[in-house]
Amino acid sequence: MTTHNIVSVSGGKDSTATLLLALALETENLQAVFADTGNEHELTIEYLDYLEQATGVSITRVQADFTTRIAGKRRFIETKWREQGVDEFVVLAALEVLQPTGNPFLDLCIWKGRFPSRRAQFCTMELKRDPMLEQVVLPLMGPETMIMSWQGVRADESIVRRYLPECDEAGGGLFNYRPIIKWDVPTVFEAHTYMGIKPNPLYSQGMSRVGCMPCINCNKAELRAIALRFPEVIERIERWERIVQQASKRGAATFFAGASTKHPKGPITEMTALEVMEVASIRQAVEWSKTARGGIQYDLLIATDATACSSAYGLCDEGELTLTLEAA
Ligand code: SF4
């Protein structure tokens, strides 16, 4: 029986600590895997190169490919949308942008005609779980193999994670192993220090999580920090919104709204945080992120120094997800 130890890394502190723990334990047949969503910050991509070089563990990069599904969507639009009487202008506009770009996040949204949302978080499965399973895990599975999927999740991150076991079996000899489930944040950083590994520099640049930038689940402070320090990220999402709107039958798709059509007119002022985040364009959401609670007053305490160091050490580590075998 051969055991393969596969560590899912996101470039975040928890998955890095998990990889470092595996190294410290001299784990055999160890490999690391990074699912590149195409919506990562370049500092995370650079950090993975550093991590690979500093640890000597090669990190396999996997990406989802939506070429076939986009081709199928084109055929669907050319036939079904026309049969349904969709305006020819809308059909042609959608066909114009329904081409694979090579960026998994954007291609997923073009194919779906919408962005993922809190209620329909298909990005995790499509961009992280499935490529990891299909390109790395499934080819290794067999009657004589056991696969340990090391995941850097911690119980104090969320109520769901609080009740995760340290180890469970997904089936077919595949196990989810969560060796740092009981660790706290200081212990995670101690592991970096002990092994002489720097944390992702995004933590010292105002980011409270490492993963997609932005993540569809990012909060107000994170969005404000991203807009302040990395305005090019907001510009990229604006470009993506225009493309995905064109691929949408309703012509309405925003980064924080999925397929919502409830676009507010004018500046956001009195909507609740959740409502705002679920209807606004990225630019409107950024403006809202600069406001105090309720959105009426601008927050006088807003940080304006983009070089200031601030870290909350929370983490959106959606990449370290539980592997299940169905629908893979
Ligand atoms: S980090 Fe956020 S946006 Fe990226 S795949 Fe995970 S949930 Fe989706």
Overview of the molecule:
The chain has 328 residues and is of the alpha/beta class. The protein has a domain at 67-99. It has helices spanning 13-24, 42-55, 67-83, 88-97, 104-112, 122-140, 159-162, 185-195, 220-229, 231-247, 273-279, 282-289; strands at 2-8, 30-35, 59-62, 145-150, 167-171, 174-177. Strands 3-2-1-4-6-5 form a six-stranded mixed β-sheet. Strand 2, helix 2 and strand 3 (59-62) form a beta-alpha-beta unit. Helix 1 crosses helix 8, helix 5 (104-112) packs parallel to helix 10 (231-247) and helix 9 crosses helix 12 (282-289). The two termini are 24 Å apart. Bound molecules: iron/sulfur cluster. Residues 37, 39, 116, 121, 123-124, 127-128, 211-212, 215-217, 316, 318 line the site of iron/sulfur cluster.
Low-confidence stretches are 258-277, 296-321
Number of strands: 6
Task: Evaluate the radius of gyration.
Answer: 21 Å
The secondary-structure element order is EHEHEHHHHEHEEHHHHH
Overall geometry comes to globular
Look at the structure and give the mean pLDDT: 84
What class do helices, strands and sheet pairing give? alpha/beta
End-to-end separation in angstroms reads 24 Å
Question: Strands of the biggest beta sheet: in what spatial order?
Answer: 3-2-1-4-6-5
How is the main sheet built?
Answer: 6 strands, mixed
Fraction of residues in helices?
Answer: 40-55%
Give the helix tally: 12
The proportion of residues in beta strands is 5-15%
